[in-house]
Amino acid sequence: MATPVRSNSRLSLAMERTGQWVFSQDIPADVVVAVCEASFSLHKFMLVSKSNYIRKLILESKEPDLARINLSDIPGGPDIFEKTAKFCYGVNFEITVHNVAALRCAAEYLQMTDMYCDNNLSSRTEDFLAQVALSSLSGAIIVLKSCEDLLPLAEDVKIVQRCVDVISLKACNEANFPSRTPPNWWTEELSIIDIEFIGRILSGMRKRGAKALTLASALTTYTERNLRDLVRDHSGRCTMSYNPGDCDMYARERELLQSIVSLLPSEKAALPINFLCCLLRAAIFVKASNSCKNELEKRISVILEHVTVDNLLVMSFTYDGEKLLDLDSIRRIISGFMEKEKNMAVFSGGDFKETCSAAMHRVAKTVDSYLGEIATYPEFTISKFNGIAILVPKGTRKVDDDIYRAIDIYLKAHPNLDEIEREKVCSVMDPLKLSYEARLHASQNKRLPVQIVLHTLYYDQLKLRSGADDQPDAAATRSGLQCDASLARENEALRSELTKMKLHISDMQKNKGSSAKRISAGAAAAAATSGSRKHTFFSSMSKTLGKLNPFKHGSKDTSHIDDNIAVDITKPRRRRFSIS
């Protein structure tokens, strides 16, 4: 029931307004012009005098007396048609920067040009555009904003391109020679324009020699105004709650964010670091395209040496700060930076493992501190912890105090880890590169695995034995530890073999009695058999030759051994001979 009432009210309002400026009251209206829900009772001859389009409609109509015309497609709607009708009746009305684009498009639609009638609406609006609207930056921005609802006709009559050219030129002038305070006032006014027009404006400014910082300033302000809920400020604070199921609600924000990222200047130092981090968190939140996130990750990895722990934390948590986001972006950023440094080292002819730049030392310290900040969260698993820590080569860290602090915090926050899991956590640390204070703490730290504690104690013992004030060489100490570990494994293997030998000898001694009995019984049986056997020629010869034994009474003589006596077949004990 609400729609008919609203329609009737708009109809009556339009009729009332029309009656106020239609002077030919003595002549009844002969045509009704319908524009959307509004209707205007007018005179054909007045409309035809200015509009070639209406003239053609009347002439080409199949009805002998056309009484109703539908112009619902006219740019600007009923309000703009009312002004064009006033122009046809010769009634004065005001042309402003807010309605001049719509009037120009309506004049084009109704064919109210000078070719049809001198000094028509088309030329009147063109004069206003040239002399008033496009003479200032603010006026051109307002006109361009009004063109968003007038496409594609506004493009066809060149209003959009003229506005873009004027804004690009005047924005460059303001950036170089500000006429107001604050100097970047023009970036605030640009923030009302559609992102498609912003891209064309920035492209025009770049062609006119605008600096990357100028373009970055415009984009930063535009983002803060149009993505206020996602990028509220550079501190990363926001009142939004994290609800992954509602990400489809941010379809408009996702499209806008992807367009903004595509317009970022290529210069790496043009944009604030935390602004890029906020953009990346917003991209993760609204589930932006992979190309959008990869572009932001690459930009951050290039300048990672200037990124702080707070910047990394912005990308790691939800907007309410209660939950960790997926840390894949953090890993890709660190990995990208390390790959860049590796390529630079190879290009310079150095060894990436031996030569570490100052930027890598700063990044290593930042990453270790970052791990300490997020180590307390229960969803931060060992694989995630090690996955980030191992991205920093061990040779990059001058001392391992920061990574030790992160490990200690992690072990304290996850007390249910077993010995193997704790060793996995500690595998990213070199205990020989701890400072004296850290080694002292580690030697008394009950949360650490025993192996790590022993390493620290061994290191200090070596230092005490050497009696030197300087720390012993870490590589030599590590080599000594490896040798000791190898010897310990060999000793353990020998101990195991000795144990097996003792068990074997014990079993043989237990079976010695039974074996002797079986051997005696076998010998008796053999003797009985030989006694009953007949002597042959070969057996006689064998006995005769046996008497000629040259080793008789020697060490090899075995003729005196009785066959019935059991022989001890155990291995004789080795004796040590010495000359005293």
UniProtKB/TrEMBL annotation:
Residues 29-97 form the BTB domain. The keyword Transcription does not apply. Pathway: Protein modification; protein ubiquitination. PROSITE patterns: BTB, NPH3. Pfam families: BTB, NPH3. Residues 184-463 form the NPH3 domain. The keyword Phosphoprotein applies. Keywords: Phosphoprotein, Ubl conjugation pathway. It comes from the Eukaryota. Belongs to the NPH3 family. This is Root phototropism protein 2. It comes from Salix udensis. The lineage of its organism: Eukaryota, Viridiplantae, Streptophyta, Embryophyta, Tracheophyta.
